[in-house]
């Protein structure tokens, strides 16, 4: 495709000073990368996508993606800034659009998350994040849109953890609309198995107990709460998860690093994790 301002004429050569100025501006407005990050921490599939970038942009994008993944659960706003930094040089890559979308979602920017994850889905054909797309609709005050998405052919083909996540989102959407009976039904997927425990089971069981109580089925609700507790114990999660011991560096820093963010995040409400975002939105 030709730029209309030049017609069929070749573009003038790029001034190296322009590139240096652009790189300098990127560094100025981008969050700091921790010293131990090399970019090689990414998995093979991610690194394969990054091979399409030149030698200048590839390490920049890779390192910011590593930082986004490192911080998304403890400092989602900073993780989002890292993903945006990666997008300034690698925005045409699916893995970058995915990172921007997921960190935006974690940071509560549901409109941005919706845009980016739709683009990622179109680029990659991956349906994994359909529950996140549906929950973004809830976050934007459109629970009926979340329900509409859940009735698509793509969602009908989901299985396992992704189907369980979608069930929790849809149940929450029905709850938003005051349709508690449908909220119960939405959770009755094959993954709701009282005799088996998967990583998502404690949250799924707890969500089911909550909606059962809403419709007056208190005894059943109590049984599922007990089973959620048993699943946590079996999985070593929740109340049975080993505490993480962290050493905090007392040296001040002008720009955020993981150790600094961890120190600031100790008093933050941990309800921003998936348990609250999916199926438990107030």
Automatic annotation (TrEMBL):
* Compositional bias per record (Basic and acidic residues), positions renumbered to this chain: 254-282
Q: What segments bear the compositional bias annotation Acidic residues?
A: 242-253
**UniProt-annotated stretches for the region Disordered:** 1-36, 242-282
Source species, domain of life: Bacteria
Question: How is this protein named in the record?
Answer: Tetratricopeptide repeat protein
Source organism (scientific name) = Nesterenkonia aurantiaca
């Amino acid at each position: 495709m030709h730029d209309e301002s030049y017609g069929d004429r070749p573009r003038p050569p790029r001034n190296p000073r322009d590139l240096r100025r652009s790189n300098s501006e990127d560094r100025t407005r981008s969050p700091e990368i921790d010293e131990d990050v090399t970019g090689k921490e990414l998995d093979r599939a991610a690194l394969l996508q990054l091979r399409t970038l030149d030698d200048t942009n590839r390490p920049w994008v890779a390192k910011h993606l590593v930082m986004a993944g490192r911080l998304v659960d403890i400092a989602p706003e900073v993780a989002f800034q890292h993903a945006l930094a990666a997008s300034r040089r690698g925005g045409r890559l699916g893995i970058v659009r995915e990172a921007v979308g997921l960190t935006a979602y974690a940071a509560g920017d549901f409109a941005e998350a919706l845009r980016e994850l739709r683009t990622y889905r179109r680029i990659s054909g991956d349906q994994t994040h359909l529950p996140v797309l549906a929950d973004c609709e809830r976050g934007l005050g459109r629970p009926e849109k979340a329900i509409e998405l859940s009735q698509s052919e793509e969602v009908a083909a989901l299985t396992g953890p992704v189907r369980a996540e979608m069930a929790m989102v849809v149940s929450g959407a029905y709850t938003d609309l005051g349709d508690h009976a449908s909220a119960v039904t939405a959770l009755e997927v094959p993954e709701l198995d009282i005799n088996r425990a998967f990583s998502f089971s404690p949250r799924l069981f707890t969500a089911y107990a909550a909606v059962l109580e809403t419709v007056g089925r208190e005894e059943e609700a109590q049984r599922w709460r007990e089973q959620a507790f048993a699943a946590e114990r079996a999985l070593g999660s929740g109340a049975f998860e080993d505490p993480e011991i962290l050493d905090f560096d007392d040296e001040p820093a002008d720009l955020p690093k993981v150790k600094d963010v961890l120190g600031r995040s100790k008093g933050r409400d941990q309800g921003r994790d998936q348990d609250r975002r999916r199926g438990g939105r107030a």
